[in-house]
């Protein structure tokens, strides 16, 4: 028998936001503010960005399970003149971490993983002071002290030689085993690709399946995400449905960065999906098709305050941030009295954003094959969508 929600939260020692999710969205008519409708303020803003070649990609705004706005701009493959469309697949960058977090939650729900279980319980080969102190909770909340595996000496050079998904998974775990912690577990917050890779390795070890097969079956399959997968670079190169990543150069121009990408993504980033599939993921998560209500709450409820300079921070401006918490995967942000649950991602030629608004029942998915200047903050299209939803979209 599953423990009660109250007993589970007490066991976790969770702090911060505890969210009340609505029941699975029904097809109930709702007044959609003019700013979010076709030809409204957001629609016009995105078109202006695209006309200035500042946005390339697809977006989808949903309310109560119904499409409010769907748009695509730019090219998936400029060399072959393939346009982006509603079914174009984009590399998700760090939005992928949401799938890893839900996979861990499924195993926790089944009693196979404990949130305060030690890393050494699940994975071997780590020094005792790491194996016995880092917990699953620390890994999920970016408080483990592990850092960014992509900046580890020799990692990218080694990754360029890998030719299978399992080699990429296991070899990355070996690299993380050699790393040291930036601070004692629980003593700070540092966004950690290495930590999320280890969570995927735990999913693999505990489930007895490869990480990739587990996510395909238990996340993509259960949610009906029929086009989503961890596609390899050869598939990316050959499939016209998949958007090439066009990275910003110091000169201001953009270049296709596909050939410099790794063989395959992993638990920390670069699964592929499209807007309709991500909408299905939102419906499955909020509709408790992936997790029961208790574990859905545990996953998206805030736990610890992140660094104010961390990725995924809400945009500034007219919006008043009343609370910001790192949850188990997403960030939970209270803005203008409304909870915003989501994750963004970015890499060379990639900028992605997935946001849930349980109070008003909006879902926004914005997938772009253009990256952005991070010194300027979040991409303007991401900011505009959030501003209009939390302000009522007037």
UniProtKB/TrEMBL annotation:
InterPro entries: AmpC-like, Beta-lactam-related, Beta-lactam/transpept-like, TAT_signal
Boundaries of every Beta-lactamase-related domain copy: 42-373
Signal peptide: 1-25
This protein's UniProt keywords: Signal
Keyword Signal tagged: yes
SUPFAM superfamilies per the UniProt record, alphabetical: beta-lactamase/transpeptidase-like (SSF56601)
PANTHER family: BETA-LACTAMASE-RELATED DOMAIN-CONTAINING PROTEIN, D-ALANYL-D-ALANINE-CARBOXYPEPTIDASE/ENDOPEPTIDASE AMPH
Name of the molecule in the record: Beta-lactamase family protein
């Amino acid at each position: 028998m599953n423990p009660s929600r109250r007993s589970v939260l007490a066991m976790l020692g969770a702090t911060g936001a505890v969210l009340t999710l609505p029941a699975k969205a029904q097809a109930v008519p709702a007044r959609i503010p003019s700013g979010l409708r076709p030809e409204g303020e957001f629609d016009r803003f995105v078109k202006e960005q695209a006309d200035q070649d500042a946005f390339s990609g697809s977006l989808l705004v949903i309310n109560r399970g119904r499409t409010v706005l769907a748009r695509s701009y730019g090219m998936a493959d400029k060399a072959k003149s393939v346009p982006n469309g509603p079914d174009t697949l984009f590399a998700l960058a760090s939005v992928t971490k949401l799938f890893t977090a839900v996979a861990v939650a499924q195993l926790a729900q089944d009693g196979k993983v404990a949130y305060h279980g030690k890393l050494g319980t699940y994975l071997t080969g780590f020094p005792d002071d790491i194996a016995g102190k880092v917990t699953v909770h620390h890994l999920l909340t970016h408080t483990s002290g592990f850092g960014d595996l992509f900046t580890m000496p020799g990692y990218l050079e080694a990754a360029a030689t890998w030719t299978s998904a399992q080699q990429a998974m296991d070899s990355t775990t070996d690299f993380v085993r050699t790393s040291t912690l930036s601070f004692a577990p629980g003593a700070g917050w540092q966004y950690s690709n290495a930590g999320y890779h280890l969570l995927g390795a735990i999913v693999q070890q505990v489930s007895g399946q490869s990480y990739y097969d587990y996510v395909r079956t238990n996340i993509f399959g259960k949610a009906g995400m029929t086009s989503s997968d961890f596609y390899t670079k050869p598939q990316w190169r050959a499939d016209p449905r998949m958007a090439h990543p066009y990275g910003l150069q110091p000169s201001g121009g953009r270049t296709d960065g596909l050939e410099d990408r790794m063989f395959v993504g992993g638990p920390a980033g670069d699964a592929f999906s499209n807007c309709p599939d991500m909408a299905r993921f939102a419906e499955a998560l909020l509709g408790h098709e992936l997790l029961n209500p208790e574990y859905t709450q545990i996953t998206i409820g805030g736990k610890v305050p992140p660094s104010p300079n961390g990725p995924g921070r809400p945009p500034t401006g007219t919006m008043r941030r009343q609370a910001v918490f790192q949850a188990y995967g997403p960030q939970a942000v209270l803005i203008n009295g409304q909870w915003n649950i989501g994750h963004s991602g970015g890499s060379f030629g990639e900028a992605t954003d997935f946001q849930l608004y349980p109070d008003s029942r909006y879902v926004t998915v914005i997938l772009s094959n253009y990256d952005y200047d991070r010194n300027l903050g979040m991409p303007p299209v991401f900011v505009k969508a959030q501003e209009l939803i939390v302000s009522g979209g007037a």
